[in-house]
Amino acid sequence: MTQTTPAPSQDDILALIGSQLHLEGPLLPILHLIQQSYGHVPQIAVPLIADALNIGKAEVHGVLSFYHDFRDIPAGRHVVKICRAEACQAMGGTAVADHALQRLGVEWHGTTANGAVTVEPVYCLGLCACAPAAMVDGRVVGRVDTARMDDLLSGVGA
């Protein structure tokens, strides 16, 4: 479950960046620390990171957009990830995903109006033998059909 955190300040972000500069290749550790601290990597952090590492803002943005676990806006209190890989699709995962999106009234990467749930696609949870699979707040669940998805969503307030 994600937590509500205070709005990021430039000084706080600079302190987080500074705490990781001793590392070799500090970009990913910096991004992870900022996201852990705020629940996302706010746009204000991008130029600060770029300046501290003497790289371009485009490079920071490229890393942020390449790794799907980084967010530029906060997620809901709960995150539901639904596998979109071939094995899960072959076992009915598309119908499960469509059902969840319709029930929540959101598109992929969307958050419900009440802020309870963010739903995201993921491309393989490693549970291919128990497809279709989903992940709720970091807990992997296999053999998910629409009824089980309804139970999972009810459990997170959706």
UniProtKB/TrEMBL annotation:
The keyword Protein transport does not apply. One of its GO terms (molecular function) is oxidoreductase activity. It comes from the Bacteria. CDD domains: TRX_Fd_NuoE_FDH_gamma. Keywords: 2Fe-2S, Iron, Iron-sulfur, Metal-binding. The keyword Transcription regulation does not apply. Its cofactor is [2Fe-2S] cluster. Binds 1 [2Fe-2S] cluster. [2Fe-2S] cluster binds at residues 83, 88, 124, 128. Belongs to the complex I 24 kDa subunit family. This is Formate dehydrogenase gamma subunit. It comes from Thalassovita litoralis.
